[in-house]
Amino acid sequence: xxxxxxxxxxxxxxPANIGTLRDAILEENPLHRSFMTAALENITADEMAHLxxxxxxxxxxxxxxxxxxxxxxxxxxxxxxxxIYFQKNKKYRYSSxxxxxxxxxFNDEYMSFYMYGxxxxxxxxxxxxxxxxxxxxxxxxxxxxxxxxIGPGHGYFMLTAMERGSxxxxxxxxxxxxxxxxxxxxxxxxxxxxxxxxxxCMDFLDSKLPEGGFDAVVMGEVLEHVEQPEKFLKQIxxxxxxxxxxxxxxxINAPAVDHIYLFRTPEQLEKMFGDCGLKIKSQLIKPYExxxxxxxxxxxxAINVAYVLERK
Length: 312
Hints:
The protein has twelve helices and seven strands. Helices cover 47% and strands 18% of the residues.
């Protein structure tokens, strides 16, 4: 007599918007199925709820799930194309802001695609999710004072700081009008009016922000987009209070359509921190998925890094 096979437990149904997004992505790119399956299994229930509410926010703005799937797949396709170029040429396609700015930051249509797609990768790409988790967990919850974010982009990190932190004021500075508009819409939608915030569209290096005026300075995924990252780091050291919480992320050997400054090793970046008056308190080094740090460096595969810093 044979034993009956145990019944398989069905995977829990995805929230409506996420399920529709997954189906729309796979309809256009069936080869992405194994990646999407693993990505959705990696998300916690709380993160799933946050992604669902972000998609709901987008839909309330009049965006369709099909449009959001196209945004996401645009980043997937652009990144793959740049990875192929990088592996062949051992350098990024562009090395100056002028070469890239009109195609990305000052192109409203593409920048909208880019920001919505990038927000989705914060939940679906394991490297981006690891950075977001590190930010969320390291953010001081009871710190008062002034919070500054350089390059808020789609706005989700800034929203997280406002929801989880206790800062008295929040300032965001971005060179892209599209990014400022998306951040403002996100903050307003989720009750940003309950907390004081200001968004400024300007070059961070030209800003007239007060020296030593900030208790927290956050800069996510900016250094690889500029020609002279050391100027940004020195500006951060100038604006941060002596005991300020400073959070910075960037990437190593990670080509993208708008990456122009190539960091080749974490050590190169960490030396730059020291030269600019900053020191490391804690860090996250995220090698290419499935590879060790050494393998990622040897094979020129993307490495994502995040640091909690303080002034020397």
